[in-house]
What does this fold into?
Amino acid sequence: MKKLIIVESPTKVHTISKFLSNDFTIRSTMGHIIDLPKSKLGIDIEKGFEPKYIVMRDKLKILKQIKETAKKVDIIYFATDPDREGEAISWHIRNYLNDIKKKTYRITFNEITKKAVLSAIEKPRDIDMNLVYAQQARRILDRLVGYLISPLLWKNVQGGLSAGRVQSVALRMICEREEEISNFKPEEYWSITAHLKKESSLEFTAKLFKIKNEKCKIKTKEEAESILNNCKDKNFIVKNIKRKEKIKYPPPPFITSTLQQEAANKLGFTSKKTMLIAQQLYEGLNVGEEGSTGLITYMRTDSFRIAEESINEIRNLIKTKYGKEYLPPSPNYFKNKKSSQDAHEAIRPTSALREPDKIKEFLSKDQFKLYDLIWKRFTASQMKPAISEVTEVEIEADEYLFKTSGEVIKFKGFLSVYQITEEENKEETLPVLELGEKLILLKLVPEQHFTSPPPRYNDASLVKALEENNIGRPSTYAPIISTILERNYIKRIEKKFHPTDLGILVNSILVKTFPDIFNIKFTANMEEELDKIEEGTLTWKKVIEEFYKPFSEDLKKASNIMSDMKKNVDEETTEVCEKCGKKMVIKWGPSGKFLACSGFPECKNTKSLNDDTEKEVTNEICDKCGSKMVVKFSRFGKFLACEKYPECKNTKSISIGIKCPKEGCNGNIVLRRGKRGVFYGCSNYPKCNFLTRYKPVEKVCPKCKYPIMVFVKNKFICINPECKYEETGSSI
It folds into this structure.
């Protein structure tokens, strides 16, 4: 009996084909294959918000090939990803193949291993329409917001601007944090540290904690100096010693949000990079004699649940590798959050026996780092807690009370596998002290401090905030961040997110015009309603109708509000257009502020804004005059220009942060401009002639191991002329 399995990714085809007999044919959809049209709204609002799906133009050939194969088999299995998106893709293809009258089943697996795939085939099910409707509702909501608000921004404010239902809320969070930072007024305070010791013992420190039994608050230098003068001749006596056992419990295995946070904190990965590498580990890699196999479970999850079989495997490994003293008497279980859908297991290795060092030679540097992190976290989650002894000491100098503490680890437990950061384990080593003992004062050190504003978001803290506020779902965190970065609404500077002028402008307009839609609580509530559609307790049409009624009212008012705000957007300057003599005005574009002639469209003269506050000075030195280079913008994007312009007109391209793939070349890939538009080339040109029309991405080709690929029309393409491997994917 001939059977067809339909998956999303070509990598899955390669991995799954090794598990199955010749009775099975496997085909890839290369991602979404049927969707709403790009050129129009694609939703019939008058007829109950019915979506008008079309076959994506670049997928026609793929779909025809799938249909031809389907005609030759007896059974069709839809094996797309085990989430709403995957369920919708399966539903679309089933509808397309409906006329060929074949038996169709839906199968899902949380990991791409032989056992999981064969088990799924033995237990097929029908397509879950509640999952499909939940995905469809999200798609329609996002389309209504994006396609109905963005044109208003183009018409009334500035061309090229855009809005997104969830991304704009994330932008709002970043802008509001920036406003908090701008409005913050630091307050001065002081601390006093005593450096002490006992006879023939190590020096240690203690902080001033109380004055006359009240917690000390030292606000000025004068107050600090007064305390120093009063303390320096006092006797420092050990007043109290407390010793207690401290138990540190192991962390749970990773879910999507915590994986992105830890990968950002420990590996320096962006959320986008983390998910891209996790996808590679999930879909399968060649690990020597074992061949191609999935190394981790599905990486889009919000559940801490672990399969009993996997728990038994890791417990046996812990007992063998680390010793029975590290193994708890029963497995560790972790409680999910109330908002958890619990659709998939936590992120774990598909086999704990596949230890990172054993397969290191088969993985790229970054693949190994992430797999190592996942393996260690999972292993640690099933180990005993770490136990330490904490000693707290109070030292009295008349009315002044100093405090110090030290910690000694008695049993490392899970810390022998999964190390906590230095900040989390920063305790002082104390000498053996006795009650009533007099200590030697070596010195008193005052230190000035200022209260700090809340920190800017980074990848880890923004993902954490999105999760805590119930904004988006595991599959959307990385795309949310990537989208607002690519729209130039925010910049990542030293790993922190800063809103651009353009981002602040768009946020202020959207919040004022649509206060309900771009509201954190409203967006979180919408996520809960999408979950209820998935559960079958709400219908998708009811959710859309209830959303659209107030939204349509806001749309009617939006044009006038935006038009009034535009007066504050186009700021007239004293600069005169050298082409027609009219005044130049400041406008916003995708790359930030620029000067444009007020006589547009008759005069289309534009130029960069020569404002010192807009210049981003770099450490790059001009090779013509020795001055510093500054970042400037053109319609092609960023470039470096000499700060002595117009005396020196030297310019340079900016690296996109990817090394040239040509063997033996140490150059960087830069954005260049030519007669036919922009392209990407090597900074060592003309010594190196590497170039490509499309923007390279840091993704190793699974087939030929070429170090970079390009992203074109929802596909990653290998640019090695001897390979040209393709696979579906997302650039965000």
